[in-house]
Amino acid sequence: MTDRHVLPGQHWYEGVLFFGYSPPDILDAVKHFEVRDDDVFIVTYPKAGTTWMQEIVWLILSDGDFERASKQQVYFRSPFLEFKDDILNEVGLDLANPMPSPRVIKTHLPVKLAPTQLCQKECKVVVMFRNPKDLCVSYYHFYRSSSSFGNFKGTWTEFVDMFKDGHVDHGSWFDFTRSWWNMRQHDNVYIVFYEDMKRNLKKEIVKICGFLGKQLDDKTIERISENCSFESMRNNPMTNHLDVYSIDSKISPLLRKGTVGDWKNNFTVQQNEDFDKFYQSRMDEFNIPFQMVFGTSIAYKGQRYKKLKAECLRASKLFTDPEFPPQSRSLYFSRHAPADIVWKRPQDISQSPEFFTEGASADDFTQGSIGNCWFVAACACIAEDHKLLKKVVPDIHQQGWTKEHQYCGIFHFKFWQCGQWIDVVVDDYLPTRYGQLIYLHSKTRNEFWSALLEKAYAKLFGDYESLTAGKAKDGMVDMTGGVGESIELEDYRTEELKKKLFKILRSSYEDRSLMSASIRACGNEMEAEMSCGLVKGHAYSVNAVKKIRLGKSLISVFNREKIRMIRCRNPWGGTEWKGAWSDG
Predict the structure, then answer these.
(1) From CA 389, how far away is CA 365, in angstroms rounded?
(2) What's the chain's average pLDDT?
(3) Residue 581 lies in a domain
(4) Is 532 tagged catalytic?
(5) Number of domains in the chain
């Protein structure tokens, strides 16, 4: 971008960019701020969970004074030290100086600009870090919604570049983070990670109590944890900042999502790779344990696989899923199911049902009677990568129909949703017609893992019908937690651009990226077969990208000319390519 966004009252102070709400005279005064021994400083970079930590620490120090917390905004109970807003009548220094002890004070300043007495007194400093990708996304939406940053109309791509260069209010995240990470050995500095708070809030509150030297009973800690959940704070007028004139919550509220891994919904593949390289160049030597995503999963609808399986084993019964029962409503949302559809367990379909017969492969996926070729194409890609498959299919060798598997009619799969792995439990009832599976199935009649995977995905969507029409890219994201990106062929029309596109695809293939392809269809063109055998609106999985030398003769060996080729797989397993190099 040529012209960088200019903040209202923008200025540089000792190499750090600030907006006009942190003017030079205030920053000068902050350095000389009179620190007390019982002060507690909340130190964060913007959008790292500041309000969250302010509320938690204030409630801890006040022994859980929920009555006062319900009557006074958090920004008055815990002032923003370097902030000055004449309209809001909020001047951090003026609020902090007369406050009774113990004070809870917020700052976004790096170490070099913090009060000089911070490490000379016996005060406590709670530093909260958040992974930079999620933080960057959150800061972008804050820039869009807050007039404090001016009328920001920049794109996401432009903001990422601004963030990396430190051309945002309060300067470089990288410089800020390095400065406070280097303070972690000081006895009065405690570092906590946003992601740990999201994983187990109560546990982290107990740790913070220990650092602050506060002993609270379990009931108070439990209530603080409930009061400071994301939903509670977003609905709390004392913490949600809906009263702040400068924030347009219709564009984006201050408390937006509060999730881990949401960056995957914003970063393109290239942006992610570029960001990683930049991060490594600036931060690699520090080895800070940031969590970009969560590895653990959440039980969908509170159904815990191991608990439910243990209950079934004790009762000697087969599991029937009350949340996704073998009924019409699990098949369709718009109509009743046909009367000839019968739900059957695999042992009623095959004499020797197996989860896998000879391992997983792309041949395990043949599309059924619903238009979810996009999902089938995504599954075919996953099946070829054992490492990815184990993410989607947990306990991969412990699920099956034998005594060894402790079969009791329950299976589970994992999908990536909103920055978190979701563990979905299903029973093994499958819809059939005349004894045959009507939806996704394996070419091997007694193999059922692919049909159960589709059932778990349908449960996540509400019913099978909801899987009709979609994008293979989204299916791949849901089964990997990866970053999805679309490429339009019409953007690569010239020969030079076609070479560039092939290079991108081949590099992606060699890096084990998952790829699919489709032809755009309009109206009645949907699923119309073309003369070459390809089907419009149909999703294909891409399973090879290579340069092929034509011919097998000795002359062809020395012929340097190669042809660029991409191999696709049809989830239908029916229509075939009829053009050059086809079987015909």
Answers:
(1) 14
(2) 87
(3) no
(4) no
(5) 3
